[in-house]
Amino acid sequence: MQGIDEVTGNRIPLLAANWKMNNTITDTRLYFEDFFKLSPSIEGREVIFCPPFTSLQSARMLISGKRGIHLGAQNLFWKESGAYTGECSGLMLKDLGVEYVIVGHSERRGHFRETNRIVADKLRSALDCDLRPILCVGEKEKTRRSGKTLQAVKRQLKEAIGNISQEDMRRTVIAYEPVWAIGTGLTATPKQAAEVHMMIRQTVADLHGGSIAAETRIVYGGSVTPDNIVSLMEEGDIDGALVGGASLKPTSFLRIIFYDSQKMISG
Ligand code: PGA
Asked: Is 27 exposed, middle or buried (0-12, 13-18, 19+ CB in 10 A)?
């Protein structure tokens, strides 16, 4: 079963690096040189690197054959081919050897006006292209201040996963990323995050059944660092992290990956 440890039956922690618009091909090579110099083998967790489109190919070659490490893209278009200048389809990503794709990141929703409808179309296309979507949901600061966080996140979630099949849900990862915490140094407290994660799992259960909800990985994102990852991971419904800024240095991302034994990584 995808994402479940066959021996313990627990969800496998998932740590994803969202490099955003950072790291050229040369930077990518240097990054992985450092990363693999420092890294013991990756076991008992799943690590995903999401470089920009232009570095996907070199990242794919550099991580090839490395256990526990997977390749993800940051975005896709919702059609497989056609006259869509500047876009990149799920089919093309799959062809390149990409396994995961981030869908509905708040920077896409904000800067590029991606609506819940567009996010749902992208999710559909990712699944149709046999990719594993990492669906991002999260409230803005104003929404949190007005006490409507759960309502807003639930709506984003339902509009994305309301019409997918159980099989599709099994392949989908959810990332809860409060918009006010992304790149700001402000993190949701473990309690704040846990409350939303619990609601997300319950919503998945309502839509797709309890056993699928129990298998679904729900990761947290928003200013995750080596210092706050441990307390976030102590919450039962937090299954990992989507990491932006702190994933750009191999040392800090490795400390996040090995959150349960940070002393193994020096630097
Ligand atoms: P951050 O970004 O870790 O830099 O806050 C997270 C994200 O946007 O996925």
From this structure: middle
